[in-house]
Amino acid sequence: MKAKVHAIIVAAGKSIRLKDAVRKQYVALDGIPILGRTLNIFDSCQRVSQIIVVVPKEDLDFCRNEILLSAKLQKDVILVAGGAERQDSVFNGLKAIESDGGIVLIHDGVRPFVRQEHLIACINGAAELGACILGIPAFDTVKKVSLTNEVTQTLKRDTLWLAQTPQAFKVKLIKKAHEAAKQEGFIGTDDASLVERLGEVVKIIPGSRSNIKITNREDLKLAQALLQISASGL
What we know:
By secondary structure, the protein is an alpha/beta fold. The protein is built from seven helices and eleven strands. Helix 1 crosses helix 2 and helix 3 packs across helix 5.
């Protein structure tokens, strides 16, 4: 019997970098909000049983009435208020999972181009090892710099990867990692870093360069281009 799979879609950002009246997760791409596009991918994944959507507290009614209703999702959906930081928002989402069993996928709501096969691969990896994340190998030369932007070292690119989402974990493990981080006042740059500091193995598997995170206007232009490429069948 396969473990139950939950998906936490984190869309509680304030959209500071976009500098627009509309939060980035609600901006429409060809008439469909970015968050709605992301939700549709997870809703169509047969392995996912439940979707937990984390949004700013003040947006709960808007998301319930505008985003979720228009998306017409078929799966069980829970709407949760986010916290001050992304880590707090994920923690709030984890608290909505009643059982400590199963697998949870944690994904950025503004990554609307993730592929179905990558969801499945992350789920299978987490079921096997406890933690599995998407990423891509660094494809540019990577420089380490000082606080004054002076290059101090050129890093070996063949051991460097850029982490993406989703990141998949056994529910019990990621809850333990978040609780430990909260108690110790540790803030990580992603959820995997919280598991790593427990000494647990985190497997990284190849994702896609098209799995972009939309954070600014340049990303929006790239997202529009990706939609056009997809529509043309290239």
